[in-house]
Amino acid sequence: MLAYILKRLFLIIPVLLVVSLLSFMIIQLPPGDFVDAYIRGERGRGRTISSEEEASLRVRFGVNDPFLVQYGRWIAGIVRGDLGVSLALKESVSKIVAERLPLSALISLLSFLLVNLIAIPIGMLSATRQYSVADYFFSILGFLGMGVPQFIFAVVMLWGIYSFTGQASVGATSPEFVGQPMSMAKFLDLISHLWLPALIAAATGTAGTIRIMRANLLDEMEKPYVIVARAKGLPRRKLLYKYPFRMALNPFVVGLAGVFPGLVSGELMVSITLGIPTLAPVLLQALEMQDVETAGSLVFIISTLSVVGILVSDILLAIVDPRIRYE
Amino acid sequence: MDTLAPLLQVQGLKVHFTSKEGTVKAIDGLSFEVYPEEVLGIVGESGCGKSVTALSILNVLSRNARIVDGTILFRRGAEMIDIARLDPDGEAMRAIQGKEIAMIFQEPMTAFSPLHTIGDQIGEMIELHLLGTPSAGGTPPRAAPPPKPGLLNRPAVRRWVDDQTSAILGKVGMPNPKEILHAYPHNLSGGMRQRAMIAMGLSCNPRILIADEPTTALDVTLQAQVLRLMKQMQADYHMAIIFITHDLGVIAEMADRVVVMYLGRVAETAAVDDLFHQPRHPYTQALIRSVPKTSGPLEKLIPIEGTVPSPMDMPPGCKFHTRCPQAIPGRCDVREPELIPVAAGHAVACWLYADGGAA
Ligand SMILES: Nc1ncnc2c1ncn2[C@@H]1O[C@H](COP(=O)(O)OP(=O)(O)OP(=O)(O)O)[C@@H](O)[C@H]1O
Ligand SMILES: [Mg+2]
Question: Which of A52, A243, A274, B291 could bridge to A170 as Cys pair (CB 3.0-4.6 Å)?
Answer without folding.
Answer: A274
